[in-house]
Amino acid sequence: MSRKEKKNSKKKKINIVLVIIALLVITAGALIATKFLYHKDETNEVISLGSEDGREEKKEEIKIYSGQDRPIAVMIDNVDGARPQAGLNDAYMVYEITVEGGLTRLMALFKGVNIEKIGPVRSSRHYFLDYALENDAIYVHYGWSPKAESDISTLKVNNINGITEPSSTFWRVSDKSSPHNAVTSTKKILDSAKSHNYRTTSDAKSILKYTSKEIDLDSENAILANTVNLPYTSTKVKYVYNEETKKYERYQDGKLHKDWTTSNAVSTKNIIITYAKNYNLQDAENKGRQDLSNIGTLDGYYITNGKAIKITCTKDSRTAKTVYKDLEGNEIQVNDGNTFVQIVPIDSNVTFE
Questions:
Q1: Does residue 50 sit in the same domain as residue 81?
Q2: Does 330 score more than 80 pLDDT?
Q3: Secondary structure of the chain: what % helix, strand, coil (to 5)?
Q4: Which of 20-34, 42-56, 130-144, 156-170 has the lowest mean pLDDT?
């Protein structure tokens, strides 16, 4: 091979190497671009070509309603001799509804928490079953009315009745008088549920449409609600907004409602009010027990962060989930946090300050 040919051959080899290097650089650049576009960056945002601006925020887990644990619904006594109660601040939802004598009873729902003391536990009323069923909850009570006993059987409600359970599941404490002193724990309830062969897991979706983004009701229809007054027939409930904690502190009959175990104020992030007609139920015991007209579309309010909006509350059957919508027909989003659902008499004079 001549010197000239050798020189040309060497030049070709150099050109080939340069082409290969260029191809490697282009390939590496494409891989880096792909990684940048489709993987999480340092701020935990997801970069997506499909979004309008190329960025899509990472979805946060809803803390108040997470995991596959099946909810537990516990009937809580609420007369003056029963207060303070234990466990209300640990419940993700609490329902309050009128019972006989114009008083109220509470049903606290727990999910995925370990609470050593819940109570005082009291007897069942049949319309509370509707809300236990729509939450796919194990229903816990200490005794029952005739109508509740019948409906628990007819509706095949997974229930745990303290009267028929061993004393290790429910026990009476000495610092309250009977019948306002029966308590239990989530561990004892779950142990009992397993002995009854009840499901202890659930894939049911939440009743409420929670959001991890803080909601402030700043629409033109929002009502100032730093104080919420809820008069039931024989008891008065009030909530006062705490701007520091962004929660409402609960009062009953003029007194700050406190936790039995911690002495902390009972508080809530969200309040839902539903107006429903209640009337006397004629049962075998004739004790003035109540019935509740809660099927259909009812009026109400959603309250959070010092403001309220009017809503509708629709329940199509006893087992159907209640759907809460604003007056434009959109299902409301609810702040991530606990919720008190106040089902008040149809003529209750609810006021806001």
A1: no
A2: yes
A3: 20, 35, 45
A4: 42-56
Rounded CA-CA distance 64/50 in Å is 30
> What DSSP letter does each residue of 229-271 carry, written as one string?
EEE-SS-EEEEEEETTTTEEEEEETTEE-BBTTT-PBPEESEE
Q: In whole angstroms, give the CA distance from residue 269 to residue 336.
A: 8
What local confidence, expressed as pLDDT, does residue 220 receive?
85
Tokens standing for residue 257: 């409602």
Q: How far apart are CA 272 and CA 276, in angstroms?
A: 13
The dihedral over CA atoms of 137, 143, 147, 148, expressed in degrees to the nearest 10, equals 0
Q: Give the predicted TM-score (pTM) of the model.
A: 0.84
pLDDT of 30 over the 50 cut:
no
- Side chain identity, residue 57: E
Tokens of 179: 């019948």
CA nearest 225: which of 307, 334, 109, 335?
Answer: 307
Q: 185 and 101, same structural domain?
A: yes
Assign 207 a pLDDT band (cuts: 50, 70, 90): very high
Q: Which residues contact 47 (CB under 8 A, 6 or more apart)?
A: 36, 37, 38, 39, 40, 41, 54, 55, 56
Instruction: Let me know whether 225 and 290 are in one domain.
Output: yes
Quote the pLDDT of residue 22. 53
Distances from the Cα of 276 to the Cα of 170, 260, 280, angstroms: 33, 30, 14
DSSP H or E run through 302: strand 296-304
DSSP per residue, 311-332: EEEEE-SSSSPPEEEETTSPBP
Full residue range of the structural domain in which residue 31 is found: 3-56
Which residue did the predictor score with more confidence, 291 or 6? 291
- State the number of CA atoms in the 13 A half-sphere of 9 facing the CB: 6
Number of domains in the chain: 3
Is the separation of the CB atoms in 275 and 346 below 8 Å?
A: yes
Concatenating the DSSP letter of every residue in 128-149 gives HHHHHHHTTPEEEESSB-HHHH
Which has the minimum average pLDDT: 9-23, 24-38, 110-124? 24-38
